[in-house]
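Support case: zinc ion complex. Customer-provided input:
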Amino acid sequence: MSTQPLVAILSGAGISTDSGIPDYRGPNGLWRRDPEAEKLVTYDYYMGDPEIRRRSWQMRRKNRALTAEPNDAHRAVADLERSGVPVRVITQNVDGLHQLAGMPARKVLELHGSARSVVCTQCRARGPMTDAVARVEAGEDDPACLLCGGILKSATVMFGERLDPVVLGEAVSITKACQVFFAVGSSLQVQPAAALAGLAADNGARLVIVNAEPTPYDDQAAEVVREPIGTALPRLLGELAV
Ligand code: ZN
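Agent response - structure generated as follows:
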């Protein structure tokens, strides 16, 4: 049995801004400030309107999350895991950058799914986003599932969709089990991320918040760090490495 403390890292949009990805989903994110853009990622509008789907596919063609590279903060998390410390990532991001930085996929819980995959709304088959986008580039407005003809969507959790209960259950288990819980680049104003930070503190984990702006959980944190994530996280995680 490992004697190393389990480290949980909850990451939000702020960890990926150094990779050039803006905050879409947060309280002040792009989607919340633009109702027309928000329709493109709202399940009922998407399923009910071919024109919304056509515009969604055009948006996905330009999605910076698909071409972005991990930054020093993502690499620091992967380095800690490689050093032998048990690490689990719970992320609000859909960009896949923790895995690209070297975190094993099985140790990353994507609360809001992944923009790097598509899923069929009918048969639930999954495939790479790059394949679907290639079909759009080749002229299809709204590429359908190749297996059943159903409507394809990004494998992200749209507004109006439930989070995956299995992923959420694992996130809760890790939050309860960890000894250290980092909340990085998250406003902690969107559920379930907010509740997880509180749950970690209530269960006796050392809560460390790394975020430029104050969060509702700063009072419960053992440490609050305001410096840029790209320098703060490598320093903080470096202190934990074996
Ligand atoms: Zn299908």
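The domain at 23-67+115-156 is CATH 3.30.1600.10 (SIR2/SIRT2 'Small Domain').

Case will auto-close in a few days if no follow-up is received.
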